Amino acid sequence: YAYFSRATKETYPMALYKAKMRPGMWREARVESVKCADGVCDVAVNLTIDHSKIRGINTPLTERWIVQDGLAWYVYNG
Questions:
Q1: Hey, how many other C-beta atoms are within 10 angstroms of the C-beta on 41?
Q2: pTM surpassing 0.90?
Q3: Nearest CA among 61, 54, 77, 71 for reference residue 3
Q4: Backbone angles phi, psi at 59, to 5 degrees
């Protein structure tokens, strides 16, 4: 939550984030690539998830980050 952009925090309060996220949802998160243009970065990530019956499920996703004042912030769209 600390990496959320200001706008994300305004529209997605911490209580809602905590209610939706569970510790241990994934075993590993690996950044595959980062492409940035005009202060907006699309980050390709691969999550490894362990389910109670199946271990090692690889799930690709793309995250959007913005760069403001030299710092990167995550734009969550849950």
A1: 17
A2: no
A3: 71
A4: -130, 110
